[in-house]
């Protein structure tokens, strides 16, 4: 009897514990945890200007190479060095070229000797033919030999001139006054004709080299503001060139702005910041960089429905990038968006947040 009572008590306790666990686990299993994100409010951009970072470049930069192949024996200049027109910058081993020149000169001497002999024969046979001691046919043969000898002499002289030029080409000279941007070959290296060995920037006014997005196409001759990195002076610059072909990788267009004043002599490769006036017909807004979602097919942000706390995707057009913020069109000011964690979200997902960040940071 005691065994049966103990069994009933144990069974009752187990049943109570099971019910308590089921009741405790039920609400948790039915609850779906919302994703925690940081939010931002879309605000109008404080300025109509959009900034782009570029480099100081020369208007004309040439890739120089030898006009003949050979082994480099000397390099006379270094990167960053200023050179003048006609200054020697590199030299090839010209031993073989000089031997070829000697061979061509010997050929010229032999051809000249034949031409002199043929000319003397023509004078002699002309008199013999006139006096009747030689036939006209024989004289015509002598004249043809003279013409052939003269032609061979001219050809030999031309080949000798080419060989002389090749010897001269063994030394690479600067075509213009400028600055050596880079040296791409060293003594001991064998190079081919036309291979770039020195990059030379022509002396003259400097330009700001930028890469603008597809959405921005300023007019040629339009003005902008620029500032060298580390300088407090802001100057006006003028757009001289805007490429019609986009870079196949970055999908940007090369733009060149002419620098003026002290910046016209700025060091090549220096960092420069250029601000362009906004030409977009749509209002430009500012949002945090972390809010942008780009999967390669679309660019946009996640908009938050304040009532349902669900998100939906909104396409945007990038107008410019700052250090922490992005300037975009396609968003209404005051819209709440996801500021961080955009790449982890999905359409229609429910979110929650514990801190709101305003997009406009002074």
Automatic annotation (TrEMBL):
Pfam families: BSH_RND. The keyword Lipoprotein does not apply. Keywords: Coiled coil, Signal. Residues 64-196 form the Multidrug resistance protein MdtA-like barrel-sandwich hybrid domain. InterPro entries: MdtA-like_BSH (IPR058625), RND_pump_MFP (IPR006143). Gene3D superfamilies: 2.40.30.170, 2.40.420.20, 2.40.50.100, Helix hairpin bin (1.10.287.470). GO terms for cellular component: efflux pump complex. Residues 139-166 form a coiled coil. It comes from the Bacteria. One of its GO terms (molecular function) is efflux transmembrane transporter activity. Belongs to the membrane fusion protein (MFP) (TC 8.A.1) family. NCBIfam families: RND_mfp. This is Multidrug resistance protein MdtA-like barrel-sandwich hybrid domain-containing protein. It comes from Thalassospira mesophila.
